[in-house]
Amino acid sequence: MRQRRLFGKRFKIIFGGGIVLVAVLGAIFAPLIAPWDPYQQDLLARLKPGFWSPRAVAGHWLGTDNYGRDLLSRLIYGSRLSILVGVASMLLSAVVGSVAGVIAGLRGGATEQAIMRFADAQMAFPDILLAIMMVAALGGNALNLILVLGISRWMVYARVVFGLTRSLRERPFVEAAKLYGGGDFYIMRQHILPQVMPVLTVVATLQVAQMILQETALSFLGLGLPPPAATWGNILAEGNTRLFVAPWIANSAGLAIIVLVWGVNMLGNGLREQYDPHGLGR
């Protein structure tokens, strides 16, 4: 039973990590992997299905869109924005939320109440609605997407880190550091963050999937990078208008999103079980 649980944890990490690694490598080396220029139009080959159909055009393995652009190439290039926005916005929200959570947990009192009540108030507001309002006000580009998504999810990290910091601040090593004159920044850097890093790693991994879904939703609604930018959300939006004529456009983008998010979630769940100190005793 113990060996089976260990295999299950490692399988999730290896399989999920493999999916993520393939997607990352594909995004990095997109110019070398993509068979076509994702913006090259060929109106004579528009709305052609992929390899499964006798109407397929040679070289377009997943078919073409309304402008004759190669769908596989656009999906490969589209993974760049999804992964970039997902990872960058996760890092931004993790930094902001972790610092806020540590400060609230160490200081307590009015500082704790101000930070955590503000976090509770923002959590009560739907994050996707907040992101839509902010992107509509700031404009849709990669930097604004990162800022908006990062700001919309910092509360998750703040609550997790706050709870862990409150439990750690009474530990003997933290009390000893205070007696020897250690300030909040020193205690945070030397004693708090190393203790909460495993939990933060799990939370951050799972949040990447959430960020990718939100970025795709914003692009689908027309609030991301404007067309003809090769993004999964734009491909979904285009395929949605031609769902009964060329279903492979929306289906291929939807499948790419499902596989990547599934891989990220599997990796995050595997890491969560790996870091769970009681996991083997269940």
Could you walk me through the main structural features you see in this protein, from its secondary elements to its overall organization?
- It is built from eleven helices and no strands.
- The protein is mainly alpha-helical and about 280 residues long.
- The chain has a domain at about 80-275: MetI-like (MetI-like fold, Orthogonal Bundle), CATH 1.10.3720.10.
- Helix 1 crosses helix 3 (about 70-105), helix 9 (about 185-220) runs parallel beside helix 10 (about 230-240) and helix 9 packs antiparallel against helix 11.
- The chain starts with a helix and ends in a 7-residue tail after the last helix.
List strands and helices in order, with pairings.
Blueprint (H helix, E strand, L loop, with lengths): L1 H27 L1 H4 L37 H37 L1 H15 L3 H12 L3 H11 L1 H15 L3 H8 L4 H37 L11 H10 L5 H29 L7
Helix pairs in contact: 1-3, 1-11, 3-4, 3-6, 3-7, 3-9, 4-7, 5-6, 7-9, 9-10, 9-11, 10-11
